[in-house]
Amino acid sequence: MSSSLLSSGPQLSQSCEPSLPCCADGGSQLSNKAPQIIGVRVQLEMHALWHQFNQLGTEMIVTKAGRRMFPTFQVQISGMDPAAEYVLLMDFIPVGNERYRYAFHSSSWLVAGRADVAAPSRMHFHPDSPARGAQWMKQTVSFDTLKLTNNLLDDNGHMILNSMHRYQPRFHVVYVDPAPNSHLNAHRNFCSFSFPETRFMAVTAYQNHRITQLKIASNPFAKGFRTTDPQEWVGNSRALTMWCPPEGTAKPGEKRSKGSKTSTIIFQFLPHPQFSYSF
Fold it and tell me: Of 74, 83, 147, 161, whose CB count within 10 A is highest?
């Protein structure tokens, strides 16, 4: 991955990563992507909140049973072919090759040595995949069912991460090509996006007390931990309203419409040197 993707600073939206064949920039690479992919744009939701966390050094809890991310990874998508079908998915790649420890006396993260052996890498498919572009573009796409775990033997499909290591989430858009020989053009049918402000340190317990305070102040599911004095909160982020169903379930009164739909998706990613992907 290009180091520019790991630099700090605000970034509201992105086209393809510079380190991947780019579907949105001009030049010779433009013809390498399918028309259904070439114009896709992605904008990160709750950017201001992500930026607040990033300034402090975002931490995400990993547990054996799996823990949801907060802030939740949510995006707005534009530029899709409304009639074409797409699969949306996420993965996480390590930032650097180091393991860290938190120095409480200086309130900072320090390199503690070389990174542990990379955990088995997985892809998290959005539960509504595949769906037409019109459906993806009409509302915010939320990965609120995604969970992080440090259990190397996890069999629930959670994303396996090493504690005290830094990670960069990546978001992938894959066009479901109906052509019988689509596997021959797999490299043309996907595009990947990265937002530097969403990088985080995986931890089993929050290290920076300011991160703890900001999570309590901004997470609607942490209201039981809040002080009654808003002046003691860190930041002024508005509480977010969302409903997080358990895996494999729908909201009350709703039926899963995608349960019986299957599709074969073939695509290729530039491999990360530490990863061997499993689906």
Answer: 161
Cβ neighbours, 10 Å, residue 257 = 10
Q: What is the pTM of this model?
A: 0.73
The pLDDT value given to residue 263: 41
What string of H, E and C letters represents the secondary structure of the chain?
A: CCHHHHCCCCCCEECCCCCCCCCCCCCHHHHHCCHHHHCCEEEECCHHHHHHHHHHCCEEECECCCEECCCCCEEEEECCCCCCEEEEEEEEEECCCEEEEEECCCCEEEEEEECCCCCCEECEECCCCCEEHHHHHCCCEECCCCEEECCCCCCCCCEECCCCEEEEEEEEEEECCCCCCHHHHHHHCEEEEECHHHCEEEECCCCCHHHHHHHHHHCHHHHHHCCCCHHHCCCCCCCCCCCCCCCCCCCCCCCCCCCCCCCCCCCCCCCCCCCCEEC
CA distance 188 to 182: 9
**Which own/partner contact pairs does 96-104 have at CB distance under 8 Å and 24+ positions apart?**
96/166, 97/274, 98/165, 98/166, 99/162, 99/164, 99/165, 100/164, 100/165, 100/166, 100/201, 101/164, 102/207, 102/208, 104/207
pLDDT mean by block of 10 residues, the chain; 279 residues: 34 43 42 90 97 97 97 97 98 96 94 91 95 97 97 95 97 95 88 96 97 92 56 39 39 45 44 41
Phi-psi region of 235 (alpha: psi -120 to 50; beta: other; left: phi over 0): left
